[in-house]
Fold:
Amino acid sequence: MQFRDLKLQYQILKEDIDKQVLQVMNDCNFINGQQVKEFEKDLADFVGVKYCIGCANGTDALSLCLMAYDIKQGDAVFVPDFTFFSTGEVVSSIGATPIFVDVSKETYNMSTKSLQKAIQEVKKEGVLSPKAIIPVDLFGLPYDVEKINKIAKDNNLLVIEDGAQGFGGEFKGKKACSFGDIATTSFFPAKPLGCYGDGGAIFTNDEKIKDLINSYKVHGKGTFKYDNVRIGINSRLDTMQAAVLKVKFKAFKEYELTDINIVANKYIEKLNGYVTTPMIEKNYLSSWAQFTIQLKSKEQREFVQQELKKLDIPTMIYYPKPMHNQQAFSELKIYQENKNTISLCDTVLALPIHPYLKDVDIDYVVDNLINLIK
Ligand SMILES: *Cc1c(COP(=O)(O)O)cnc(C)c1O
Structure:
Protein backbone atom coordinates (compact mmCIF):
# COMPACT_ATOMS: atom_id res chain seq x y z
CA MET A 1 0.00 0.00 0.00
CA GLN A 2 1.19 3.52 -0.78
CA PHE A 3 1.00 6.36 1.74
CA ARG A 4 0.03 8.77 -1.03
CA ASP A 5 -0.30 6.99 -4.37
CA LEU A 6 1.30 9.35 -6.89
CA LYS A 7 2.07 6.46 -9.26
CA LEU A 8 -1.55 5.48 -9.58
CA GLN A 9 -2.57 9.10 -10.04
CA TYR A 10 -0.03 9.43 -12.85
CA GLN A 11 -1.34 6.28 -14.54
CA ILE A 12 -4.80 7.81 -14.56
CA LEU A 13 -3.70 11.24 -15.83
CA LYS A 14 -0.78 10.01 -17.94
CA GLU A 15 -2.11 10.77 -21.38
CA ASP A 16 -2.83 14.42 -20.61
CA ILE A 17 0.27 15.02 -18.55
CA ASP A 18 2.59 13.49 -21.15
CA LYS A 19 1.01 15.60 -23.87
CA GLN A 20 1.35 18.83 -21.90
CA VAL A 21 4.94 18.16 -20.85
CA LEU A 22 6.00 17.23 -24.39
CA GLN A 23 4.41 20.44 -25.60
CA VAL A 24 6.75 22.43 -23.32
CA MET A 25 9.73 20.56 -24.73
CA ASN A 26 8.57 21.12 -28.28
CA ASP A 27 8.08 24.83 -27.64
CA CYS A 28 11.25 25.15 -25.53
CA ASN A 29 9.50 27.79 -23.44
CA PHE A 30 11.00 26.48 -20.22
CA ILE A 31 11.07 29.79 -18.38
CA ASN A 32 7.91 31.87 -17.82
CA GLY A 33 5.98 30.07 -20.55
CA GLN A 34 2.33 30.69 -21.33
CA GLN A 35 1.37 27.72 -19.14
CA VAL A 36 2.64 29.54 -16.05
CA LYS A 37 0.46 32.57 -16.71
CA GLU A 38 -2.57 30.42 -17.48
CA PHE A 39 -2.12 28.37 -14.34
CA GLU A 40 -1.68 31.49 -12.18
CA LYS A 41 -4.89 32.91 -13.57
CA ASP A 42 -6.81 29.63 -13.01
CA LEU A 43 -5.58 29.46 -9.44
CA ALA A 44 -6.42 33.07 -8.60
CA ASP A 45 -9.96 32.52 -9.94
CA PHE A 46 -10.39 29.31 -7.97
CA VAL A 47 -9.13 30.81 -4.70
CA GLY A 48 -11.06 34.02 -5.28
CA VAL A 49 -8.22 36.54 -5.09
CA LYS A 50 -6.96 39.06 -7.64
CA TYR A 51 -3.41 37.81 -8.01
CA CYS A 52 -1.58 34.51 -7.90
CA ILE A 53 2.18 34.60 -8.32
CA GLY A 54 4.00 31.35 -9.01
CA CYS A 55 7.41 30.75 -7.46
CA ALA A 56 9.94 27.97 -6.92
CA ASN A 57 8.52 26.37 -3.75
CA GLY A 58 6.39 26.95 -0.68
CA THR A 59 9.34 28.11 1.41
CA ASP A 60 10.28 30.84 -1.08
CA ALA A 61 6.61 31.83 -1.20
CA LEU A 62 6.71 32.56 2.54
CA SER A 63 10.07 34.34 2.31
CA LEU A 64 8.83 36.55 -0.52
CA CYS A 65 5.84 37.62 1.61
CA LEU A 66 8.12 38.58 4.49
CA MET A 67 10.38 40.53 2.10
CA ALA A 68 7.47 42.37 0.49
CA TYR A 69 6.15 43.48 3.89
CA ASP A 70 9.66 44.47 5.00
CA ILE A 71 9.75 42.20 8.02
CA LYS A 72 13.24 42.28 9.46
CA GLN A 73 15.55 42.08 12.45
CA GLY A 74 13.84 43.16 15.63
CA ASP A 75 10.42 42.00 14.45
CA ALA A 76 8.44 39.22 16.09
CA VAL A 77 6.45 36.80 13.94
CA PHE A 78 4.06 34.34 15.60
CA VAL A 79 4.12 30.83 14.15
CA PRO A 80 2.69 27.51 15.34
CA ASP A 81 5.01 25.30 17.37
CA PHE A 82 3.51 22.29 15.56
CA THR A 83 4.21 22.64 11.83
CA PHE A 84 6.76 21.91 9.11
CA PHE A 85 10.11 23.60 9.75
CA SER A 86 9.76 26.15 6.89
CA THR A 87 7.11 28.17 8.69
CA GLY A 88 9.62 29.22 11.35
CA GLU A 89 12.75 28.95 9.25
CA VAL A 90 11.76 31.73 6.85
CA VAL A 91 11.30 34.12 9.77
CA SER A 92 14.80 33.48 11.11
CA SER A 93 16.38 33.48 7.67
CA ILE A 94 15.31 37.08 7.03
CA GLY A 95 16.61 38.04 10.49
CA ALA A 96 13.32 38.36 12.38
CA THR A 97 12.34 36.27 15.42
CA PRO A 98 9.78 33.46 15.33
CA ILE A 99 7.64 33.14 18.46
CA PHE A 100 6.23 29.63 18.83
CA VAL A 101 2.56 29.40 19.64
CA ASP A 102 0.76 26.29 20.89
CA VAL A 103 -1.92 24.53 18.83
CA SER A 104 -5.34 23.03 19.54
CA LYS A 105 -5.39 19.30 20.21
CA GLU A 106 -8.63 18.94 18.27
CA THR A 107 -7.80 20.80 15.04
CA TYR A 108 -3.96 20.77 15.22
CA ASN A 109 -4.09 24.45 14.26
CA MET A 110 -2.82 27.55 16.06
CA SER A 111 -4.51 28.09 19.43
CA THR A 112 -6.03 31.54 19.82
CA LYS A 113 -5.54 31.47 23.57
CA SER A 114 -1.86 30.69 23.24
CA LEU A 115 -1.48 33.29 20.50
CA GLN A 116 -2.97 36.01 22.67
CA LYS A 117 -0.70 35.07 25.54
CA ALA A 118 2.37 35.10 23.31
CA ILE A 119 1.52 38.54 21.90
CA GLN A 120 1.08 39.93 25.42
CA GLU A 121 4.39 38.43 26.56
CA VAL A 122 6.31 39.95 23.67
CA LYS A 123 4.65 43.33 24.13
CA LYS A 124 5.29 43.32 27.88
CA GLU A 125 8.96 42.52 27.35
CA GLY A 126 9.24 45.39 24.89
CA VAL A 127 12.29 44.11 22.99
CA LEU A 128 10.77 42.87 19.73
CA SER A 129 8.10 44.58 17.62
CA PRO A 130 5.19 42.23 16.94
CA LYS A 131 4.59 42.36 13.17
CA ALA A 132 2.89 39.28 11.78
CA ILE A 133 1.18 35.96 12.43
CA ILE A 134 1.72 32.95 10.17
CA PRO A 135 -1.21 30.63 10.84
CA VAL A 136 -0.84 27.28 9.07
CA ASP A 137 -3.68 25.31 7.46
CA LEU A 138 -2.25 22.16 8.96
CA PHE A 139 -2.98 18.78 7.36
CA GLY A 140 -5.40 20.50 4.96
CA LEU A 141 -7.67 22.25 7.47
CA PRO A 142 -7.90 26.07 7.33
CA TYR A 143 -6.83 27.83 10.52
CA ASP A 144 -9.28 29.42 12.97
CA VAL A 145 -9.96 32.21 10.48
CA GLU A 146 -12.32 34.54 12.30
CA LYS A 147 -10.69 34.47 15.71
CA ILE A 148 -7.11 34.72 14.49
CA ASN A 149 -7.90 37.47 12.01
CA LYS A 150 -9.62 39.40 14.81
CA ILE A 151 -6.62 39.04 17.12
CA ALA A 152 -4.43 40.25 14.25
CA LYS A 153 -6.62 43.26 13.67
CA ASP A 154 -6.81 44.15 17.37
CA ASN A 155 -3.03 44.03 17.62
CA ASN A 156 -2.25 45.58 14.25
CA LEU A 157 -0.55 42.44 12.96
CA LEU A 158 -0.31 41.13 9.43
CA VAL A 159 -1.69 37.64 8.67
CA ILE A 160 0.38 35.48 6.31
CA GLU A 161 -1.62 32.29 5.72
CA ASP A 162 0.70 29.32 5.21
CA GLY A 163 -1.53 27.23 2.96
CA ALA A 164 1.22 24.82 1.87
CA GLN A 165 -0.99 21.95 3.05
CA GLY A 166 -4.29 23.77 2.87
CA PHE A 167 -4.94 24.32 -0.83
CA GLY A 168 -8.53 23.32 -1.62
CA GLY A 169 -9.77 23.70 1.96
CA GLU A 170 -12.71 25.95 2.77
CA PHE A 171 -14.21 28.06 5.51
CA LYS A 172 -17.77 29.35 5.14
CA GLY A 173 -17.68 28.64 1.43
CA LYS A 174 -14.49 30.62 0.88
CA LYS A 175 -11.31 28.94 -0.27
CA ALA A 176 -8.10 28.46 1.64
CA CYS A 177 -5.30 30.81 0.57
CA SER A 178 -7.76 33.72 0.64
CA PHE A 179 -7.98 34.15 4.43
CA GLY A 180 -4.84 36.05 5.29
CA ASP A 181 -3.71 39.50 4.16
CA ILE A 182 -1.55 37.35 1.93
CA ALA A 183 -1.26 33.58 1.55
CA THR A 184 1.09 30.96 0.19
CA THR A 185 0.97 27.39 -0.98
CA SER A 186 3.35 24.63 -2.06
CA PHE A 187 3.18 22.22 -4.97
CA PHE A 188 5.64 19.73 -3.47
CA PRO A 189 4.53 16.34 -4.90
CA ALA A 190 2.84 15.07 -1.73
CA LYS A 191 0.81 18.25 -1.03
CA PRO A 192 -2.92 18.30 -1.86
CA LEU A 193 -2.12 19.80 -5.28
CA GLY A 194 1.38 18.61 -6.13
CA CYS A 195 3.60 18.95 -9.18
CA TYR A 196 6.48 16.72 -10.34
CA GLY A 197 9.24 18.52 -8.50
CA ASP A 198 9.14 21.81 -6.62
CA GLY A 199 6.72 24.68 -7.00
CA GLY A 200 4.85 27.25 -4.96
CA ALA A 201 2.55 30.25 -5.17
CA ILE A 202 1.51 33.43 -3.39
CA PHE A 203 -2.02 34.85 -3.31
CA THR A 204 -2.90 38.50 -2.72
CA ASN A 205 -5.46 41.18 -3.55
CA ASP A 206 -2.94 43.98 -3.07
CA GLU A 207 -1.57 45.27 -6.36
CA LYS A 208 1.42 47.06 -4.79
CA ILE A 209 2.44 43.93 -2.89
CA LYS A 210 2.00 41.86 -6.06
CA ASP A 211 4.34 44.23 -7.91
CA LEU A 212 6.90 44.10 -5.11
CA ILE A 213 6.86 40.29 -5.04
CA ASN A 214 7.26 40.19 -8.81
CA SER A 215 10.37 42.29 -8.33
CA TYR A 216 11.80 40.34 -5.36
CA LYS A 217 11.36 37.01 -7.15
CA VAL A 218 13.37 38.25 -10.17
CA HIS A 219 16.55 39.52 -8.44
CA GLY A 220 14.83 42.71 -7.28
CA LYS A 221 14.22 43.89 -10.83
CA GLY A 222 13.11 47.45 -11.55
CA THR A 223 11.64 48.54 -14.86
CA PHE A 224 13.34 45.72 -16.74
CA LYS A 225 15.31 42.56 -16.04
CA TYR A 226 18.76 44.18 -15.98
CA ASP A 227 17.69 47.08 -13.80
CA ASN A 228 18.03 45.88 -10.22
CA VAL A 229 16.59 48.14 -7.57
CA ARG A 230 16.62 45.86 -4.51
CA ILE A 231 18.25 42.63 -3.34
CA GLY A 232 15.94 39.78 -4.22
CA ILE A 233 16.09 36.11 -5.07
CA ASN A 234 15.55 33.93 -8.14
CA SER A 235 12.32 32.02 -7.65
CA ARG A 236 10.25 30.79 -10.56
CA LEU A 237 7.57 28.21 -11.15
CA ASP A 238 8.93 26.20 -14.12
CA THR A 239 6.81 25.98 -17.25
CA MET A 240 7.19 22.19 -17.09
CA GLN A 241 5.67 22.15 -13.61
CA ALA A 242 2.89 24.52 -14.64
CA ALA A 243 2.07 22.14 -17.51
CA VAL A 244 1.79 19.21 -15.06
CA LEU A 245 -0.18 21.32 -12.61
CA LYS A 246 -2.73 22.39 -15.22
CA VAL A 247 -3.72 18.76 -15.74
CA LYS A 248 -3.61 17.86 -12.07
CA PHE A 249 -5.56 20.94 -11.05
CA LYS A 250 -8.41 19.90 -13.34
CA ALA A 251 -8.62 16.48 -11.68
CA PHE A 252 -8.26 18.11 -8.26
CA LYS A 253 -11.23 20.41 -8.88
CA GLU A 254 -13.39 17.87 -10.68
CA TYR A 255 -13.14 14.90 -8.33
CA GLU A 256 -9.98 14.49 -6.24
CA LEU A 257 -11.03 16.92 -3.53
CA THR A 258 -14.44 15.29 -3.25
CA ASP A 259 -13.00 11.79 -3.29
CA ILE A 260 -10.38 12.43 -0.62
CA ASN A 261 -13.13 13.79 1.63
CA ILE A 262 -15.10 10.59 1.10
CA VAL A 263 -12.04 8.57 2.15
CA ALA A 264 -11.48 10.77 5.22
CA ASN A 265 -15.12 10.49 6.29
CA LYS A 266 -14.98 6.71 6.02
CA TYR A 267 -11.90 6.66 8.24
CA ILE A 268 -13.59 8.94 10.78
CA GLU A 269 -16.74 6.85 10.87
CA LYS A 270 -14.97 3.51 11.15
CA LEU A 271 -12.36 4.64 13.69
CA ASN A 272 -14.85 6.43 15.90
CA GLY A 273 -14.46 5.28 19.50
CA TYR A 274 -11.11 3.58 18.94
CA VAL A 275 -8.63 6.41 18.36
CA THR A 276 -8.82 10.21 18.32
CA THR A 277 -9.60 11.28 14.76
CA PRO A 278 -9.22 14.80 13.30
CA MET A 279 -12.02 17.21 14.12
CA ILE A 280 -13.45 19.23 11.26
CA GLU A 281 -15.62 21.94 12.78
CA LYS A 282 -18.82 23.21 11.21
CA ASN A 283 -18.27 25.50 8.18
CA TYR A 284 -14.89 23.94 7.42
CA LEU A 285 -13.71 21.70 4.60
CA SER A 286 -10.30 20.04 4.73
CA SER A 287 -8.25 19.12 1.68
CA TRP A 288 -6.64 16.32 3.73
CA ALA A 289 -2.95 16.80 3.15
CA GLN A 290 -2.74 14.25 5.99
CA PHE A 291 -5.12 12.11 7.98
CA THR A 292 -3.70 12.31 11.48
CA ILE A 293 -4.93 10.29 14.43
CA GLN A 294 -3.80 10.45 18.05
CA LEU A 295 -2.83 7.43 20.12
CA LYS A 296 -2.73 7.15 23.89
CA SER A 297 1.02 7.32 24.38
CA LYS A 298 4.37 7.36 22.63
CA GLU A 299 4.75 3.67 23.43
CA GLN A 300 1.40 2.78 21.92
CA ARG A 301 2.21 4.81 18.82
CA GLU A 302 5.54 3.08 18.38
CA PHE A 303 3.92 -0.31 18.74
CA VAL A 304 1.09 0.51 16.31
CA GLN A 305 3.44 2.01 13.73
CA GLN A 306 5.79 -0.98 13.82
CA GLU A 307 3.00 -3.54 13.61
CA LEU A 308 1.27 -1.70 10.75
CA LYS A 309 4.56 -1.63 8.89
CA LYS A 310 4.76 -5.42 9.11
CA LEU A 311 1.32 -5.52 7.48
CA ASP A 312 2.55 -3.29 4.64
CA ILE A 313 0.63 -0.25 5.92
CA PRO A 314 2.87 2.82 5.75
CA THR A 315 2.37 5.55 8.33
CA MET A 316 4.22 8.79 9.08
CA ILE A 317 4.82 11.02 12.08
CA TYR A 318 4.06 14.67 11.35
CA TYR A 319 5.70 16.08 13.43
CA PRO A 320 7.96 14.30 15.91
CA LYS A 321 9.53 17.45 17.41
CA PRO A 322 8.10 20.83 18.44
CA MET A 323 9.70 23.73 16.57
CA HIS A 324 10.98 25.18 19.85
CA ASN A 325 13.00 22.01 20.42
CA GLN A 326 14.73 22.11 17.06
CA GLN A 327 18.46 22.63 17.46
CA ALA A 328 18.39 25.37 14.83
CA PHE A 329 16.19 27.43 17.16
CA SER A 330 18.07 26.64 20.36
CA GLU A 331 19.21 30.26 20.78
CA LEU A 332 15.66 31.57 20.87
CA LYS A 333 13.94 32.56 24.07
CA ILE A 334 11.00 30.35 25.03
CA TYR A 335 7.98 32.45 25.96
CA GLN A 336 5.57 29.76 27.07
CA GLU A 337 5.21 26.04 27.54
CA ASN A 338 3.31 24.59 24.59
CA LYS A 339 1.79 21.56 26.26
CA ASN A 340 -0.48 20.49 23.42
CA THR A 341 2.34 20.57 20.89
CA ILE A 342 4.62 18.55 23.17
CA SER A 343 1.92 15.93 23.68
CA LEU A 344 0.92 15.77 20.00
CA CYS A 345 4.52 15.21 18.90
CA ASP A 346 4.47 12.02 21.00
CA THR A 347 1.08 10.68 19.98
CA VAL A 348 0.19 11.64 16.38
CA LEU A 349 0.27 9.18 13.51
CA ALA A 350 -0.66 9.92 9.89
CA LEU A 351 -2.44 7.12 8.00
CA PRO A 352 -2.32 6.50 4.25
CA ILE A 353 -4.70 8.87 2.47
CA HIS A 354 -5.21 9.97 -1.14
CA PRO A 355 -8.18 10.37 -3.49
CA TYR A 356 -7.61 6.95 -5.07
CA LEU A 357 -7.57 4.92 -1.86
CA LYS A 358 -9.95 1.96 -2.29
CA ASP A 359 -12.55 0.79 0.19
CA VAL A 360 -10.73 -2.52 0.68
CA ASP A 361 -7.58 -0.61 1.61
CA ILE A 362 -9.45 1.65 4.04
CA ASP A 363 -10.93 -1.45 5.67
CA TYR A 364 -7.55 -3.15 5.78
CA VAL A 365 -6.03 -0.16 7.59
CA VAL A 366 -8.99 0.28 9.95
CA ASP A 367 -9.41 -3.41 10.84
CA ASN A 368 -5.74 -3.89 11.58
CA LEU A 369 -5.49 -0.67 13.53
CA ILE A 370 -8.50 -1.52 15.70
CA ASN A 371 -7.09 -4.98 16.26
CA LEU A 372 -3.79 -3.58 17.49
CA ILE A 373 -5.43 -1.09 19.82
CA LYS A 374 -7.56 -3.80 21.46
C1 LIG B 1 5.60 21.85 2.70
C2 LIG B 1 5.44 23.01 3.60
C3 LIG B 1 6.12 24.22 3.39
C4 LIG B 1 7.23 24.38 2.39
O1 LIG B 1 6.93 24.05 1.10
P1 LIG B 1 8.10 23.62 0.08
O2 LIG B 1 7.45 23.69 -1.25
O3 LIG B 1 8.54 22.25 0.45
O4 LIG B 1 9.20 24.62 0.23
C5 LIG B 1 5.83 25.28 4.21
N1 LIG B 1 4.92 25.18 5.19
C6 LIG B 1 4.26 24.03 5.44
C7 LIG B 1 3.25 24.00 6.54
C8 LIG B 1 4.51 22.91 4.66
O5 LIG B 1 3.85 21.77 4.92
